[in-house]
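Justification of resources, computational component.

The compute hours requested in this renewal are based largely on the per-chain cost of generating structure records like the one below. Each record pairs the submitted sequence with a full structure-token output. That output is archived, and it is also reused by downstream analysis tasks.
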Amino acid sequence: MPNSIHIVRDRRARRRRAKSGLRSMRPWFVGLLLMVVMIVFASMTAGAVVMLGVYSEIVVDLPSAESLELAFQTSSNQFFQTTKIFDRTGQYVLYEVIDPRAGDRQWLDLEQIPVRFQTATISIEDKTFYQNAGYDLFGMLRAFSANLSRPICVLRPEDCPGLIQGGSTITQQLVKNVIIAPGMYADTSYSRKLREVLIAREATTRYNKSQILEWYLNTNFYGHLAYGIDAASRVYFGKPAVQLSLSESALLASIPQSPA
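The structure output for this chain reads:
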């Protein structure tokens, strides 16, 4: 009997010590938890302020998507200008490439461009073209994930010009080709990417997809000084775009991925 009493007393004593230990730990644990919450909140607030500042700086002089329409209101001979290569500041012209085929270019309405070529281009360049809002969030996330394999590309995107281009939609590429200043072409920062996204989103709300696709196919670069599908068709196959076969359409549609 005495043994049973001692056992019960020991159990009660252990329980009291355990409860006492928990009580002494609670203030310390609560303080640590509050500190973590405050640090997280402060970090999120600071990040939001920085992002708001960057966004405000970008949108101050952000061109309107209406610039697309204004650019294409000129005649084709006026629109197709010579290629100018600027220095890294974007202020001084280093070289000027005069296209000998400038007079051979012809603007095509979307109905004149083979449907097979349109389909091939969308399949290769922007599978969600008819559904997206001018930008592809998942595509950009995939490109960013690819950058994570090379940390320097996340911290210094200008050192990885090939990777930062990933995730661009047809509308973004059109914006870059027509609206973004030539001096910014070499800028591979995320700020320039954000500018493209904002203008592309506005362009999608202002113009229908058929109009955007027509503009893109008539101005895209296909290598060998060929801008626009008709010029590319004549350069590579010696015939107008309306005569392209299925295999020829597939070949030309893949060229913008790595133009010469």
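Residues 6 and 12 are 10 Å apart (CA to CA). The longest helix spans residues 2-60.
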